[in-house]
Amino acid sequence: MKKITQITGLLLLALFLPFANADEAAIRKAIEKTMPTAKIESIKPSEIQGLYEVILGSSIYYVSDDGKYLLQGRLVDVENRVDLTEQKLGATRKTALEKMGVDNMIVFKPKIGKYKVSIFTDIDCGYCRKLHSEIDQYLAEGITIQYLFFPRAGKGSDSYDKAVSVWCAKERNAALTAAKKDQKLEHKTCANPVDKHMQLATEFDVKGTPMIVTENGNILPGYLPAKQLLETLQGEQTAQ
Residues 65, 93, 124, 128: which is the catalytic one? Predict the structure, then answer.
């Protein structure tokens, strides 16, 4: 719902921005007026002349310099075959995860860590359970797993309540493993980051679970076996 509201607000923004010579300050003022709760990370000229790049939270939009048009989509360097938008989204995701902090995640660490991924998970998701059943294989490859919750059924659902109970358990890692095995959990409530996880998932446009985010902020949708994930992470590191 928040995603829909944001997009609606942006469409309204396209109508109400000044029609002539809108510069960075004018665009910022218009966004703040139309979407007072929107968090503006930056406004700057894009690679295309006459088009501004606007980062709201972890999303990127483009606004024409005359303020008449707003675009939401991918900016691609055709000659070099590079998705410029995805490159920048990777950086915004990385920053967002750093702001979230590992203290607000459930972390499984190998003895010797070589790589690290953040995974949006739903306790009742079949492939999420399959991935977690192989957690020792990921750890054996030196991959640290940082879990964030994204109960797809939404707040107040059974999956949501399970996520909160896991977080509030004395031993979170053990509680998560038990929940993934469909073992009965003691119902608990406490201060928790589950809503923040869900908001971040919305900003990242998570469509399903598990969704893996690499250290560089790149998205790997769906389940990947440990060996395949390792190869992907090695390739990402080599490409840097």
Answer: 128
Sheet holding 59-64, edge to edge: 40-45, 51-56, 59-64, 70-71
Q: How far is CA 120 from CA 28, 142, 220, 225, in A?
A: 32, 19, 11, 16
Q: Assign 1 to helix, strand or coil.
A: coil
Is 190 one of the catalytic residues? no
Split into its structural domains, the chain has a count of 2
Both tokens of 104, joined, read 């607000």
Domain with 67 in it: 2-75
103 is catalytic: no
Question: Is there a catalytic annotation at residue 125?
Answer: yes
Say yes or no: 172 and 66 in one domain: no
- Is-catalytic flag, 122? yes
Residues 6+ apart with CB under 8 A from 150: 120, 121, 122, 197, 198, 201, 206, 209, 211
Q: What is the pLDDT of residues 170-206, one digit of tens each?
A: 999 999 999 999 999 999 999 999 999 999 999 898 9
pTM, to two decimals:
0.78
Helix (H) or strand (E) holding 129: helix 126-133
